[in-house]
Design brief:
about 475 residues, mainly beta, Immunoglobulin-like, 3 domains, about 40% strand
Length: about 475
């Protein structure tokens, strides 16, 4: 009998075990939300201006997505969109989050506006402008627009190179103020620097030659915008320090800037450019490396050292370390009281073998204004004995080596034209770092944007990169 009950117990146990071991059904996974954003939302229909999309599956950025433009599947290289046809474009994306399962994103809108000729100042006389000044050899082109008294001209003009040779350039159709015109363009199968000017009737632009640089390295795409809908930017004042290793009083101003740089409250509110022009013609190891940059002191009327300048607008004499610190803090505080009218971003390609860096700068506007932009190459950790210093070894930082901001005999930057609120515009630079004494790994970029305040141009924002390789994204408050 006991044996019988034991068998029954075993059978019941197995039955229970069978029930408890039955697998629990796996719940159907729930997809994350697919979100799309774009910057800028407005581009120019010139085939060059780009809208850059960011697509995220949950919190993760994804690129292996399908794009649909106005309902049609469209291949977008690196999630960028450009067009030569003005209009409104509705874009959304799909993503296969698991085998056979598709999720769709929200729809975003890109407006492509017809090319508009923007001429700073009056439109009288002959003018020639170009849409790109840095080209990739054999791949990209620069399109000129020629106007006379504000009207686009398509014939009877002559284009010359910098050696006064007549050129026969091909033409392409561009749209300006809603009308189509044939305008000349330039592309090259060889690298180098090329200059151009035009003549028409009795006038010429020979005194305003256009320089185009053709490079081997790829021109980088625009940096990703971390907050496409915002125009609340960080504001950094530019402090220019005119100095030199043989300036006996300069250490007091250097000490003031070092104190400001070490102050947690102020270190992120300014950029520092040390311009070593005191010794010229020089034996200063931190001096500028080309004649263009050497003229910075002369251009801004610097006649004494040490001397500083705020935002290229206000010159001030150094009177002592403590007083200089107070003076700089007061200026920065006043500058911070006003919102930054623009933000700055940049991406770079460094060609170490040829010692050149190609930079795509982007300016995003909070306020509609006419802006200019400049890029300077700065170097840190330069050894050089400093007059008036008690240090055994003097290290010079933030030294301006190359300055690419001279236009129309001023250093306030290259014209960007009028940038509308919410719009993002680009300018590409290429800077050859020919001086072999400059250590590329110790270099970084200072980028500034200036605007006209009614009487002169003044820097309205500035930013620095980490080095010559790492992208700089728009910085928001």
């Amino acid at each position: 009998m006991k044996k019988f009950f034991s068998v029954i117990a075993m059978v019941m146990a197995v039955a229970v075990m069978g029930i408890s071991c039955k697998p629990t059904p796996t719940p159907e996974p729930t997809p994350e939300k697919l979100t799309a954003s774009v910057s800028p939302t407005e581009i120019t229909a010139d085939g060059q201006s780009k809208a850059v999309f960011t697509v995220k599956y949950g919190d993760k950025a994804v690129t292996n997505v399908k794009a649909y433009v106005n309902g049609a599947e469209t291949a977008l290289n690196n999630l960028t969109f450009s067009t030569t046809t003005a209009g409104t474009y509705k874009v959304y994306f799909s993503y296969e989050w698991t085998a056979g399962k598709i999720v769709k994103s929200n729809e975003v809108t890109v407006t492509a506006k017809a090319i508009e000729q923007q001429q700073p100042g009056d439109n009288s006389g002959l003018k020639m402008v170009v849409d790109e000044t840095i080209l990739k050899v054999g791949e990209t082109r620069a399109t000129f627009t020629i106007t006379y008294n504000g009207a686009v001209i398509e014939k009877d003009y002559t284009i010359y190179d910098g050696k006064n040779n007549k050129l026969s350039l091909p033409t392409t159709t561009v749209t300006i103020n809603g009308k189509s015109y044939k305008q000349p363009y330039f592309e090259s199968a060889t690298t180098g620097e090329f200059t151009f000017w035009a003549s028409y009737k009795t006038e010429s632009t020979k005194d305003r030659m256009i320089k185009i640089t053709v490079v081997n390295e790829a021109i980088p795409d625009r940096a990703e915008d971390p907050n496409p809908t915002s125009t609340s930017f960080k504001r950094r004042s530019l402090i220019m320090q005119f100095t030199g290793t043989k300036c006996p009083n300069c250490p007091r101003f250097i000490a003031a800037l070092e104190q400001l740089e070490a102050d947690a409250t102020y270190k992120d509110l300014f950029t520092w450019a040390a311009i070593h022009t005191y010794n010229l013609p020089n034996d200063d190891p931190a001096a500028p490396c080309d004649d263009n940059t050497n003229n910075l002191g002369l251009a801004f009327g610097i006649t004494a050292y040490p001397m500083g300048m705020f935002d290229m607008a206000k010159v001030f004499n150094s009177v002592g370390t403590a007083a200089d610190v107070v003076n700089m803090k007061n200026y920065i505080n006043n500058a911070q009281a006003a919102a930054a009218p623009v933000g700055i971003s940049a991406t770079m390609n460094l060609d170490e073998a040829n010692r050149s860096v190609t930079i795509r700068t982007s300016v995003k506007a909070k306020d509609t204004k006419e802006y200019r932009i400049g890029v300077w190459v700065l170097e840190n950790n330069i050894k050089g004995v400093q007059a008036g210093s008690s240090k055994e070894t003097d290290i010079h930082n933030h030294a301006v080596r190359y300055a690419d901001s001279k236009s129309n005999n001023s250093y306030y930057g290259h014209d960007l034209g009028t940038v509308k609120a919410g719009e993002t515009v680009d300018r590409v630079f290429n800077i050859a770092i020919k001086n072999q004494a400059v250590i590329l790994n110790n270099c970084y970029l200072l980028i500034f944007v200036s605007a006209n305040n009614g009487t002169t141009w003044t820097v309205v924002n500035s930013a620095t990169t980490k080095d010559l390789k790492t992208p700089l994204k728009f910085e928001y408050k």
